[in-house]
Amino acid sequence: MTQQFRTEKDTMGNVEVPADAYWGAQTQRSRDNFKIGGETLPRPMIEAMALVKKAAAITNASLGRIEESQRDLIVQAAD
């Protein structure tokens, strides 16, 4: 199966990002240019960071700082 890509743009121009990736252009550039090993964060740390992002999205939406549609997308990604 051929991997699908989407085009993201930043101040340096366009870059191809895997279609199913949750990151954008700058993270893709880092992945392409800084191959520094296979270490990853422990799963409990990732889950804790997702929980904080989810809580922040819910709070910011309730304060009117982001749209409810943005909140929903962040919550979906965090879950």
Number of strands: 2
Major sheet size, sense and barrel closure: 2 strands, antiparallel
- Measure the end-to-end span: 27 Å
Low-confidence stretches: none
How much of the polypeptide forms β-strand, as a percent range? 15-25%
> What is the arithmetic mean of pLDDT?
94
- Element string (H = helix, E = strand): EEHHH
C-alpha Rg, in Å?
15 Å
| Secondary structure: helix percent | 40-55%
Shape: globular
Major sheet: arrangement of strands:
1-2
Structural category: alpha+beta
Tally the helices: 3
Fold and architecture overview:
Strand 1 and strand 2 form a beta hairpin. The mean pLDDT is 94. The radius of gyration is 15 Å and the shape is globular. It is α+β, with helices and mostly antiparallel strands. It has 3 helices and 2 strands; from the N terminus they run E-E-H-H-H. The relative contact order is 0.11.
Question: Which structural traits does this protein have?
Answer:
alpha+beta; 79 residues; two-stranded antiparallel ribbon; globular; 3 helices; single chain
